[in-house]
Design goal:
With 351 residues, this protein is α/β, with parallel strands linked by helices. It has two domains: 59 residues, DNA polymerase, domain 1 (Orthogonal Bundle); 280 residues, TIM Barrel. The strands form three sheets. It has a ten-stranded mixed sheet with strand order 3-4-5-6-9-10-11-12-13-14, with helices on both faces. Strands 1-2 form a two-stranded parallel ribbon. It has a two-stranded antiparallel ribbon with strand order 7-8. The radius of gyration is 21 Å and the shape is globular.
Length: 351
Amino acid sequence: MKKNLLGYTLQRMTDEFVALGQTKYRAKQVFGWLYQKRVMDFSAMTDVSKDFRAVLERDYSLDLPKIHTRQDASDGTIKLLLEMEDGAKVETVLMPYNYGDVICVSSQVGCNMGCAFCASGLHRKTRNLTSAEMMGELLTMNGILDQWGRRVTHIVVMGTGEPFDNYDNVMDFIRIANEQLGLAIGARHITVSTCGLVDGIRKYGHEGIQINLAISLHAPNDEIRNQIMPISRAYPMDALMDAIKDYESNAGRRVTFEYILLAGLNDSLAQADELADLIHHYGVFAYVNLIPYNEVVEKPFKRSSPSAVKAFADRLMRRGINATVRKEFGGDIDAACGQLRSKVVTGDEGK
């Protein structure tokens, strides 16, 4: 089978091309054609020798996923269900902010983390996505943005899947996106979100790249977190917070806590105080991103009222915790992560 060159970091491409008898510069040429000149045809890479172009055509591919389903929201959000070469389907979403175009990338086909409120977990993980497939998500979205003269400017790896359960492929994808000779998306414009895989958090702190880290917390204590996030039973709050402290020490970066507000479960003022106490107790330099819940038909949870969301945010701010409420996107399409894929996989598309 041909190897998809879109999954190659510049270093990996350099090593492989040198092993084929090429110079290091050859990799920079091809990398530039792909990501700077946006040429997806080996035969059009005119400053690469014909002989090596023939090798590239024979042994490598530049395959992108197919668009299975596209949803466009009135606010400019674009949700794609993409089909990979083996038929696997994953979601990716484009969210237009006033500061740029943010893509939410999936890292796995399905998810094994089992978070009780999440549509992504309705279907178990069947496999990891490759770095080429994740890059395919981004390049496919860039192809759509071309019509408006726009490009993806920010990346959040927050779609279906647990990124640290697919660590190496996720990091290769990020390195390709961040590479100055490639897409040159700044490290501080890239965020990886984990539900709390402690070993991954510690490893991430030693990467030496200023990428953001978000923690899906969603509860102020182990009792509530155990109810909605099975990962908490393996890595309770003490272990998680210790890993975050270790990350902050090694990476020199603050973390963001993502906190979905679920009516009657984790959205009281007492729980806001408990969350503030938790952050102060461990001395982490955390920023809290409060998320109004996108209700999922198959799940029993309800979104908190606007007044409860505001009161929760205000209480955190009064307790000295920097908190904001995430802007909502795609309200008139399948907004929640995993909803569109679940419809298609279960055969309910269009119902």
